[in-house]
Amino acid sequence: MIKQIKNAIAEAYHSAYPTYTIRDEEIPSGFKKPTFVIMVYDFEYKQTLGDKYTGTLYFDDLYFTTASSTGIKSDLLSVQQTITRAFTKLNGFRAIRQTCDIVDNVLHHKYRIKYKELRKEDVEKINTMLLSIKERSN
Predict the structure, then answer these.
(1) Distance (Å, rounded) from C-alpha 93 to C-alpha 23?
(2) Using one digit for the tens of pLDDT, what is the confidence trace for 86-133?
(3) d(CA 137, CA 24)
(4) Cα Rg for the chain, rounded, in angstroms?
(5) Strands (E), 1-138
(6) How buried is residue 1: exposed, middle or buried, by Cβ count under 10 Å (0-12/13-18/19+)?
(7) What are the backbone angles phi and psi of residue 69, rounded to the nearest 5°?
(8) Among the listed residues 35, 37, 6, the one whose alpha carbon sits nearest the alpha carbon of residue 21
(9) What is the pLDDT at residue 5?
């Protein structure tokens, strides 16, 4: 599920800024700018009822600009507005509690994504049961 969520996030960044680099968790030395870096800093996961689980991912994505020193602030604010709007719907997910901070000319986009899931084994059991019921009714 985490991979699906990160892919949805990367798609949102790519849709808004198709020529920018999007990285997952790593910031190598000498990386190309402008760049978005998707970073998970916390994770909650718990079982709810039966075989159902809920999770919350906490993100602190970074945006590194190429704007000149006089245009950095306006570029960061423009990107902030664009991405917070783009993150209202992320291919079936939704970023909640979005905030943005600018620290050392880097935009920090912080948000949470909550999700629910069934374990793969449990989904297979349910499908087998449904098929069995369907066969009996025929």
Answers:
(1) 20
(2) 888 888 888 899 999 999 999 999 999 998 887 666 556 665 666 666
(3) 49
(4) 19
(5) 21-24, 35-38, 40-47, 52-64, 96-103, 106-118
(6) middle
(7) -55, -30
(8) 35
(9) 92
